[in-house]
Specification:
The protein is α+β, with helices and mostly antiparallel strands and 571 residues long. Helix content is 27%, strand content 28%. Strands 3, 7, 8, 9, 10, 11, 12, 21 and 24 form a nine-stranded mixed sheet that branches. A five-stranded mixed sheet has the order 16-14-15-17-20. Strand 25 and strand 26 form a beta hairpin. The chain is globular. The two termini are 21 Å apart. The chain binds one RNA strand of 77 nucleotides through strand 14, strand 16, helix 14 and helix 15.
RNA sequence: CGGGGUGUAGCUCAGACUGGUAGAGCGCUGCGUUCGGGACGCAGAGGCCGGAGGUUCAAGUCCUCUCACCCCGACCA
């Protein structure tokens, strides 16, 4: 590519809307432009990078035996009504009508469409397992789009769906995808980690997220420093310690006034108790009514763990007014003892092991002392709902958990048969009996992967692309366009590089040297070959690697070989 | 959804409090000089001051409404 005929579109100044590094650099490097909130144009450079990611994904998916398809973005509402998600999905699902008034959605994901496709064309176990994928645009009407391509509303995703007649086959494909994802993110040059994950709204029995480690990541992950355990904080378990040596309370609960004391810390100080001697109670709204969750006072409830324990589609902290209506007292004085019948109670096992505890009294400005779990209240469910934290013990070994932030670039799920059941996807097995298929689904955010790569690879001058993602492998930069011999030699090298199958560009723009050099650095091209007057008169060019900034000289004749050597060395 | 903020040239921003002919830097066009780290001179182009309504002799500026975008929050009791 001759940059004189290219739309480089670099910006000298920082665009004001960009918060995080990858967003700022994508704008400055001329990769993207915002069209509306969470919706972006991809410019030539951005398009090249996304195509690189896509190609790596495509090759590894094909290698893993998946078949590429292209499914519609606009999907009829009927399919979503059939799966039940028309009602469940909420405002993230963008709904629209065609000219006849028929309902459609912009696909935020493609389970419905793919199940419909497979149920029409697959009828025998002999046709399974099957793994279909696409690399396509999705639309989710995010509450708050931000960080450029990291959390947009319209975005490119690779999504794959596998179909099986039994769990063993599903497990095999799941593992195959797990391995393929590892190869993909390795090939992208990323520092990543696979973690156990909450299955969230998509559902299913198990899942892993692939996290690119970065401080700007939106997720917190916990991992053991000695064994291989790693999990999203939404799911992470921790080792339960022996309970405190507190004797059971002989006396019955005693109500004490705690005027103005609502937060655990304040109540504990007021009552001269350690926070871990209190039971923390929070009330959540769920599709099936209010639920109270209880944990020991020194811990927090992890809403995703509570949601998973209940098996509900969603859950959120109840509105204070709603709580006051139902409990007759405002939040801050709530507890599991003598709570309203209609509110279900879920207790963390550590809370159940407590003795002589203090809790809210469900009475105005009052708490209870000498509370004995089991004797004084009975939970509907005992489940681990406390969130794990850095410093907690590893649940799998004697190690300790550490935490890090990550960008979720991939997510794989064992879906099970929920969608196949709702949409009646059945095939005949070897005995001629009809069985419901079981499914897996596997996603990768293409744009997000590119953004994550920038988060991990940049400096004050701009992007430092891992070579496999770079928009160009090499930039040839003739500094002085008036020097015909120099330009001819640079053009010759450019042609030779292309001839050798190397994706080169030549900066033949009539710009000052400083402009050219800083643009090439900004957009992060891994190798730069400079033709300057002084070195050219000595018959050499200067070859600089973006990542370490080191420059070597090579004879003009030997430049192709020198570049090839650098490329194969992986820099 | 709640709170805050910003909309003026392609980009980054002044101008608004105190109403009176639309500004700067960078970028862009032409000519000349320059040419190894974001050059210099001269001459230019470029704006429905987000939109609508109002107040006024007069509105980028004051008032009302509206739209867009950005940030923070959405409750650990």
């Amino acid at each position: 590519m001759r940059l004189s005929h290219y739309l480089l579109a670099t910006l000298r100044e920082d665009p004001k809307e960009a918060e995080v590094v990858s967003h700022r650099l994508m704008l400055r490097a001329g990769m993207i432009r915002q069209l509306a909130s969470g919706i972006y144009d991809l410019l030539p450079t951005g398009t090249r990078v996304l195509r690189r990611v896509e190609q790596i994904v495509r090759e590894e998916m094909n290698r893993a035996g998946a078949l590429e398809v292209i499914l519609p973005v606009v999907q009829p509402a009927e399919l979503w009504q059939e799966s039940g998600r028309w009602d469940k999905f909420g405002p993230e699902l963008l709904r629209l009508k065609d000219r006849h008034g028929r309902d459609f959605v912009l696909g935020p994901t493609h389970e419905e469409v793919i199940v419909d496709l497979v149920r029409r064309d697959v009828s025998s176990y002999r046709q399974l397992p099957l793994n279909l994928y696409q690399i396509h645009t999705k639309f989710r009407d995010e509450v708050r789009p931000r960080f450029g391509l990291m959390r947009g509303r319209e975005f490119v995703m690779k999504d794959a769906y596998s179909f099986h007649t039994d769990d063993a086959s599903l497990d095999e494909t799941y593992q195959r995808m797990y391995d393929a994802y590892g190869r993909i993110f390795d090939r992208c040059g990323l520092d990543w980690r696979a973690v156990e994950a909450d299955t969230g709204a998509i559902g299913g029995s198990a899942s892993h997220e692939f996290m690119v480690l970065a401080d700007s990541g939106e997720d917190e992950i916990l991992f053991c420093t000695t064994c291989s355990y790693a999990a999203n904080v939404e799911r992470a378990e921790f080792r339960r310690e022996a309970s405190d040596e507190v004797p059971p309370a002989a006396e019955m609960p005693e109500q004490v006034a705690t005027p103005g004391q609502k937060a655990i810390e304040d109540v504990a100080a007021y009552l001269h108790l350690e926070p871990r001697r209190l039971i923390k109670s929070l009330v959540f709204e769920t599709p099936d009514g209010l639920v109270m969750g209880c944990v020991r006072g020194d811990r927090d409830i992890e809403p995703a763990r509570l949601r998973a324990a209940l098996g509900t589609a969603w859950l959120e902290l109840a509105d204070p007014e709603r709580v006051t209506d139902v409990f007759g007292v405002e939040p801050g004085y709530l507890g599991p003892v003598r709570k309203p019948e209609a509110v279900r109670l879920v207790c963390d096992p550590d809370a159940m092991r407590m003795h002589d505890a203090a809790t809210g009294a469900n009475a105005t400005e009052a708490h209870l002392l000498h509370v004995e779990p089991t004797r004084d209240f009975t939970p509907d469910l005992i489940a681990e709902i406390a969130g794990a934290r850095k410093g907690d013990g590893c649940p799998r070994c004697s190690g300790v958990l550490d935490s890090a932030r990550g960008i979720e670039v991939g997510h794989i799920f064992r879906l099970g048969s929920a969608y196949a059941e709702a949409m009646n996807l059945r095939v005949q097995d070897a005995d001629g009996k009809e069985v419901t298929a079981t499914m897996g689904c596997y996603g990768i955010g293409i744009g997000r992967t590119a953004a994550a790569a920038i988060e991990q690879n940049h400096d004050e001058r701009g992007i430092i692309w891992p070579a496999p993602l770079a928009p160009f492998a090499v930039a040839v930069v003739p500094l002085d366009l008036r020097n015909d011999a120099l330009c001819a030699a640079a053009g010759g090298l450019y042609d030779a590089l292309l001839g050798a199958g190397i994706d080169a560009c030549i900066d033949d723009r009539n710009e000052r040297p400083g402009v050219k050099l800083s643009d090439i650095e900004l957009i992060g091209i891994p190798i730069r070959v400079v033709f300057g007057r002084r070195s050219f008169e000595r018959g050499v060019v200067e070859i600089t690697t973006r990542r370490d900034g080191e420059t070597i000289e090579a004879p003009v004749d030997g430049a192709v070989e020198a570049v090839r050597t650098l490329l194969s060395s992986g820099r």
